[in-house]
Write a structure and sequence with these properties.
Largest sheet: 7 strands, mixed
Shape: elongated
Order of helices and strands: HEHEHEHEHHEHEHHEEEHHHH
Number of helices: 13
Distance between the termini: 50 Å
Bound molecules: S-adenosylmethionine
CATH architecture of the largest domain: 3-Layer(aba) Sandwich
Length: about 270
């Protein structure tokens, strides 16, 4: 067992709130995350290696771990905590800057994502990996309210992120993890979410843009949001009516599959 906090002190590590650094040290929780993510025998991508705590739990189970970390002050620490593994590759790139095609090329094979995500870029990261052809599942720790949005089927919590996830995957909350399990302790609890993509489902750039338009102003009707984006009003009204919705329907009422169908009828996805 590694005393991570001593290693961090030895290297005079300072937590950076701006990078969403809230680490987990409890080996039981870490192993539970790796197992829930389905790491066994797989190629796994981790965003944010931190001190290598979750990386170790994953590396013990997986075939190959590709872990991204942008804080280079963590690299000497990771050199220590991950020294016994020969199946781990560390990358210092920011995947949101690389883009998903480059990430997929770097990994070069099918993979799953398992991560305790930096909270400030949770949503862009999930959108990014939904658009990957090689990423088959995403299991991640996110703030509890983000987990609620990811798993919503319709209604108040349902937004562009929920629609995107449901369009290509089945999401579920595995468990809540209380804020005191993190160091430093954040203000809110987190939840472990598992998003498993349906076979062959692809989240296209067009669908991404369409959902963004539908939810551009959440309180406004779909007709409003779509006409603001330049779509002819009568076309939207006809498409909504064909799907059995009123002219005043909002995006959150339709759910992912009907929204996708609306985009198809309007020839926007
Ligand atoms: N995996 C570790 C754990 O569970 O204890 C650390 C998780 S911590 C919530 C998130 C980590 O992501 C931090 O180490 C932070 O430096 C890193 N990070 C932040 N932005 C990043 C980015 N754009 N790409 C890769 N890593 C990033």
């Amino acid at each position: 067992m590694i005393d991570y906090e001593s290693v961090l002190i030895k290297h005079r590590f300072k937590y950076k709130k701006s990078l969403g650094q809230n680490f987990i040290f409890d080996d039981d929780i870490l192993d539970e995350i790796a197992a829930a993510g389905g790491a066994d025998g797989k190629t796994v991508v981790e965003i944010g290696a931190g001190a290598g705590t979750l990386s170790r739990a994953i590396a013990k189970r997986c075939k190959r771990l590709c872990s991204f970390e942008i804080d280079e002050t963590l690299f000497p620490i990771l050199g220590e905590t991950l020294s016994e593994f020969d199946n781990v590759q560390l990358f210092s790139n920011d995947v949101t800057e690389l883009g998903i095609e480059t990430v997929d090329m770097l990994i070069g094979e099918e993979y799953i994502v398992i991560a305790n995500l930096p909270y400030y870029i949770t949503t862009p990261l999930i959108f990014l990996f939904l658009r990957s052809e090689n990423c088959k599942a995403i299991t991640c720790l996110v703030q509890k309210e983000v987990a609620d949005r990811i798993c919503a089927e319709n209604g108040g919590d349902f937004g562009a992120l929920s629609a995107a996830v449901r369009a290509v995957a089945e999401p579920e909350t595995v468990r809540v993890i209380k804020s005191w399990e993190f160091t430093p302790q954040p203000d809110v609890d987190s939840a472990l979410v598992r998003i498993v993509k349906r076979d062959g489902a692809v989240f296209s750039d067009e669908l991404y843009s369409f959902f963004k338009i539908c939810f551009a102003q959440k309180r406004k009707t779909l007709v409003n949001n779509l006409t603001t984006a330049g779509v002819e009003k009568q076309k939207v009204l006809d498409a909504l009516s064909a799907l059995g919705y009123s002219p005043t329907a909002r995006a959150e009422e339709l759910g992912a599959q009907n929204l996708k169908a609306l985009g198809e009828t309007l020839k926007m996805v």
